[in-house]
Design a protein that fits this description.
Distance between the termini: 76 Å
CATH topology: Cytochrome Bc1 Complex, Chain D, domain 2
Helix content: 40-55%
Number of strands: 0
CATH superfamily: Cytochrome c-like domain
Oligomer: single chain
Number of helices: 6
Shape: globular
Length: 131
């Protein structure tokens, strides 16, 4: 009996494929598509401190996407946030919502949004409604 075997793919190929999928899924906003309508509902949780059009406990969010951090007139930011040089891009907003004090340790903001889809939805809402 003549048995011929086909070379098997190395196990490292499967491991590499799984690792690639894990990295793609864990990158958050870069691959998440936001739903602005859902983001509006989620934003109600932000409304304890923020408003779209007025400063409150936190600064207003009108025009936040693309704005330099610490630049809303009439709001008393921490010195660290004012001097951070951060511009509120979608990626920076995503990082901020993961853990604001990891980005700027002396910030007043303490609320975080652990779920990547929730963050993407809130950012989509801010992009659409806060112009």
């Amino acid at each position: 009996m003549n048995v011929r075997s086909t070379p098997a793919r190395p196990r490292s190929f499967a491991s590499l494929a799984l690792a690639t999928v894990a990295v793609v899924c864990s990158t958050g906003l870069a691959h998440a598509t936001g739903n602005a309508a859902r983001g509006q509902t989620l934003y109600k949780g932000c409304a304890d401190c923020h408003s779209i059009n007025e400063n409150a406990v936190g600064p207003m969010h009108k025009g936040v996407v693309g704005r330099k951090a610490g630049s809303v007139p009439g709001y008393d930011y921490s010195a660290d946030l004012k001097n951070s040089g951060i511009v509120w891009t979608e990626d920076n907003l995503d990082k901020w919502l993961v853990g604001p004090q990891a980005m700027v340790p002396e910030t007043k903001m303490f609320f975080d949004v652990p779920d990547a889809q929730d963050r993407a939805d809130i950012i989509a809402y801010l992009k659409e409604k806060a112009r």
